[in-house]
Structures are given as C-alpha cells and as structure tokens.
C-alpha cells in the first residue's frame, strides 16, 4: 500500500510537470531591426522652450505575432552616450554624472514581461524600464502598423527579406526624476544651475521601429 501511495505521488508530480510544460507558449515570430528606418526621439522643456533630441545608437530584440501575444516579447537597448540634441556642449553635459552618467550607466533598457491587445492595432507592453541603475515597472503603449510582403526587386532592396513590419510609439512620457536623471547641480561657466528647476520633469518620447524577416 505504501509503495502504491509513493507511485501515485510521483505520477501526480509528472502530470503537473507535463501540464506546466505544455501551457508555455511557443515563441512568436522573430524580427530583425532595420536601423536605417528606425528612430528614438524625445522632447523636453527648457523653461518655456521645447528642446528636441534623439538617441542615435540603439537596438531592439523583437518577437511579435498578433496571433501569439503570449509568445511575443520586446527588448529595447539604448546607449546613453549616443544622445544628440544638436549642440555638442549640451550633449557632453548630458552624458555627465548630473544626467545619464554614461560612464557608469552606458545603457538604458526596456524588457517586456507581457504584451496585450487594446484593439484597433493598439497594444501595451508591460515590463521593466531600467535607467541609471533604477528599475521601474511601466506600461508602454504602441501601435502595430502592419506587415508588408516583399517580392522581386523589393526583396533585393531589403537584403533578401520576405516581410517588413513596423511599430510606432507616440507621445509616451517618462519622468526623468524617477530615474535620478538631472537631479543634481553643476557649475558651468560662472553660474551654478539647478537643473531640476530649469528642465521639465516629463520627457516626451517617440519611437519608430521597422523590422524585417526572412521566411525561407
């Protein structure tokens, strides 16, 4: 009787393991980033003036299928030293300890944990945004702009890819102070400037991503 009971326990554990394994979704379609047709831009207020900029060095690891959201995932990696506002002295300062501390924290990342549909090609990627050593759980809304199949000369122009897809993130805001960006002071020229009073806290972010894949 004891042996039978032990066999039942083993059987139950094996059954649970099989059920858990079978419930895991298959990975969704893997896409390759097209850097030439993708961008990460932002706007922040300097007193009453909007200042625009971009991050020019970034990468994205995207697996996405609207029919397999459970197996879909997004990871975006941005090099903080690639910040570009069009004025060298400002870009240099933004890489300093006052701001992104690029020497110590060269990367900011977003890694999704779940992607859900909101209808009308709108989705939300829940996940972790990490910047300057601080991690925050956020919800990143994005629009899926669709898939275009390529053939003939179009395939050659896209390096042999069979399909192109696009994603867009519009007017997504991040509070820089939540990540301790620009919360210190710095002496530049002859004045000490308190940047958390001069520069707006909310940073407006826009991202356009084009990806490709080969199906054969």
Shape: globular
Q: Would you tell me which CATH topology applies?
A: Lipocalin
CATH level 1 name: Mainly Beta
- Percent in helix: 10-25%
Query: Which CATH-level-2 architecture?
Result: Beta Barrel
Number of helices: 4
- Main sheet record: 8 strands, antiparallel, barrel
H-E string: HEEEEEEHEEEHEEEHE
Rg from Cα = 23 Å
Task: Please give the order of strands in the largest beta sheet.
Answer: 1-4-5-7-8-9-10-13
Structural class: alpha+beta
Q: How much of the polypeptide forms β-strand, as a percent range?
A: over 45%
The fourth-level CATH homologous superfamily is: Lipid/polyisoprenoid-binding, YceI-like
Number of strands: 13
What's the end-to-end separation, in Å?
Answer: 57 Å
How would you characterize this protein structure?
The chain is α+β, with helices and mostly antiparallel strands and 216 residues long. The protein has a single domain (26-213), classed as Lipocalin (Beta Barrel). The protein is 18% helix and 49% strand. It is built from four helices and 13 strands. The strands form two sheets. It has an eight-stranded antiparallel beta barrel with strand order 1-4-5-7-8-9-10-13. The protein is globular. Mean pLDDT is 88; it is low at 12-23.
What is this structure's SSE topology?
Elements (H helix, E strand, L loop, with lengths): L1 H22 L6 E4 L5 E8 L2 E7 L2 E6 L9 E7 L3 E2 L3 H7 L12 E13 L2 E10 L2 E16 L3 H5 L5 E13 L9 E4 L2 E4 H4 L3 E12 L3
Antiparallel strand pairs: 1-4, 1-13, 2-3, 2-13, 3-6, 4-5, 5-7, 7-8, 8-9, 9-10, 10-13, 11-12
């Amino acid at each position: 009787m004891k042996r039978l009971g032990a066999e039942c326990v083993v059987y139950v554990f094996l059954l649970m393991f099989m059920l858990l394994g079978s419930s895991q979704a298959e990975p969704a379609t893997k896409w390759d980033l097209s850097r030439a047709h993708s961008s990460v831009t932002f706007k922040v207020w300097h007193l009453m003036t909007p200042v625009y900029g971009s991050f020019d060095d970034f990468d994205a690891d995207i697996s996405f299928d609207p029919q397999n959201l459970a197996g879909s995932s997004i990871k975006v990696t941005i090099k903080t030293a690639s910040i570009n506002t069009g004025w060298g002295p400002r870009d240099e300062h933004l890489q300093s300890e006052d701001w992104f501390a690029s020497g110590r924290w060269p990367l900011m990342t977003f890694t999704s944990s779940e992607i859900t549909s909101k209808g009308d090609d709108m989705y939300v990627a829940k996940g972790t945004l990490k910047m300057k050593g601080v991690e925050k759980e956020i919800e990143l809304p994005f629009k899926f702009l669709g898939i275009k199949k390529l053939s003939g000369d179009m395939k050659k122009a896209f390096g042999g890819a069979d399909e192109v897809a696009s994603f867009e993130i519009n007017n997504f805001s991040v509070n820089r102070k939540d990540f301790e960006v620009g919360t210190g002071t710095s002496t530049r020229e002859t004045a000490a400037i308190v940047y958390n009073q001069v520069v707006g806290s909310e940073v407006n972010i826009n991202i356009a991503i084009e990806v490709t894949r080969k199906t054969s």
